[in-house]
Design brief:
Layout: H1 2-17, E1 20-21, E2 30-37, E3 42-49, H2 51-54, E4 61-62, E5 66-71, E6 76-80, E7 98-101
Parallel strand pairs: 1-4
Antiparallel strand pairs: 2-3, 5-6, 6-7
């Protein structure tokens, strides 16, 4: 019986610790600076991320959100703190209230 319990723990413990639980407050550690870019011949809001956000780079995270489908044919999705009617496109939040979702090649479709 002990071997069964240990085997169960070993098999499923990697799933329990593989994601980092985050919330939208943590993602607010960002500021934007208006910078001129020649390639677009205009000013562009360049994000600068704080240490707490940079630590999440290339990490698998888990967050409670709404999924906005921008272009399903091209697998372009955005995770939003707010539902579509209240998203940052509509003026109810800043860019820090949305996350670009990059899916690995060969993922299952939604």
């Amino acid at each position: 019986m002990n071997k069964l319990i240990i085997s169960f723990f070993v098999l499923f413990s990697s799933n329990l610790i593989s994601q980092i639980d985050i919330d939208w407050i943590k993602l607010r550690d960002v500021y934007y600076k208006s910078e001129y870019r020649e390639d677009v011949d205009g000013y562009y809001q360049t994000p600068y991320f704080g240490k707490s956000v940079e630590e999440l780079d290339n990490k698998e995270v888990r967050i409670t959100c709404f999924m906005l489908t921008l272009s399903p044919d091209e697998d372009i999705y955005v995770l939003s703190q707010n539902p579509y009617a209240d998203c940052f496109f509509c003026g109810y939040g800043g860019p820090e209230s949305a996350v670009e979702l990059r899916l690995k090649p060969g993922h299952e479709s939604f």
